[in-house]
Write a structure and sequence with these properties.
Layout lengths: L7 H11 L6 H13 L9 H25 L3 E2 L2 E2 L1 H5 L1 H20 L4 H28 L4 H26 L4 H25 L13 H4 L5 H10 L1 H11 L7 H12 L2 H19 L7 H15 L3
Antiparallel strand pairs: 1-2
Length: 307
């Protein structure tokens, strides 16, 4: 599909975003699931499956444009964000444009009612997840259950939807469709946990400043795992310090040292590996195919990626 609008500034901004497209993991996974679920081995993805893959990527990029405003992010994929270059109004409006294009793609899918239900739920999950994260950043009392609720909403829900819809587009049974949703959910959870580990990993090419989550008072799994290992007294002291991080960025280094002292990244990686195992297990409903093998490899890649 074309993102041409006839508006010079919008078209230029769209081209700039497309020049640094990221991993495009979501559409790749969606198309592989569609082909893996097809009754004709090696069959190309149908038009509905392609529309689903495109819709998922457009929606993902729309949320990034909006997130950059909420988080005041200066960088995305190692380059200045639209928010940094053109301001928050432009970033929100471009995000709205990409969201409208995603809706257009979804409208073109034949099994309209079930597909719209899936995407509507995901839009709700995305906004609710971000708002819940914002609330918890203000209160500083994020628990492990809170964390998993947040990352399901902001990341895993979209993976779950694109995989479920991909199976529907290929005429899969209800059981297979549910399993593909489970694969997508676990893959998305693993992907976000890996992202959160990166925030405590200086030297990695992650496209954003290390420690950015801490400066935004986001308590993610590496810190939560360190809390569990260190005990309640140390946890309370660190939570109190985190709430005073505004104007005192040195606290970031202190908290990061605490996390590494108590092996938070390693413990979070173990949790990530469990999500990957769940994702791979969900593929057992599929008949053998190279697409099934690729989906298992992607889950392994998510666990080990360095950017």
């Amino acid at each position: 599909m074309s993102l041409q609008s006839g508006i010079s500034l919008l078209d230029y901004t769209n081209r700039s975003i497309l020049s640094s497209p990221g991993k495009q993991l979501r559409p790749v996974v969606a198309l592989l699931v569609s082909r893996a679920c097809s009754s004709v081995p090696g069959n190309e993805a149908c038009e509905d499956a392609v529309n689903n893959a495109v819709a998922g990527e457009l929606l993902h990029n729309a949320t990034l444009l909006h997130d950059d405003v909420a988080d005041r992010s200066p960088l995305r994929r190692g380059k200045p964000t639209v928010n940094a270059l053109l301001g928050p109004s432009a970033s929100v409006l471009v995000g709205d444009f990409w969201l409208s294009m995603a809706v257009n793609c979804v409208m073109g899918i034949a099994d309209f009612s079930s597909v719209v239900r899936n995407y509507t739920k995901t839009l709700t999950d995305l906004s609710a997840g971000e708002m819940f994260q914002l609330e918890k950043a203000g209160s500083g009392d994020t628990t492990v259950d809170d964390y998993y609720r947040i990352i399901y909403g902001k990341t895993a829900s979209l993976f779950e939807t694109i995989c479920s819809v991909a199976a529907v587009c290929s005429g899969a049974s209800d059981d297979v469709t549910a399993a593909m949703g489970s694969y997508g959910r676990s893959l998305g959870m693993a992907f976000q946990i890996r992202d959160d580990i990166f925030d405590y990993s200086p030297g990695m090419d992650i496209g954003k400043p290390v420690g950015a989550d801490l400066l935004e008072k986001k308590i993610t799994l590496p810190l939560l795992e360190a809390f569990g290992a260190a005990g309640k007294e140390k946890e309370n002291a660190i939570r109190e310090k985190l709430m005073r991080i505004d104007g005192n960025p040195a606290i970031r280094e202190e908290i990061s040292a605490f996390v590494h002292q108590w092996q938070g990244p390693l413990l979070a990686q173990r949790a990530l590996e469990r999500e990957v195992e769940s994702a791979v297990s969900a593929l057992n409903v599929l008949v053998p195919s190279k697409e099934k093998d690729y989906l298992a490899l992607i889950a392994t890649f998510v666990a080990r990626r360095e950017k």
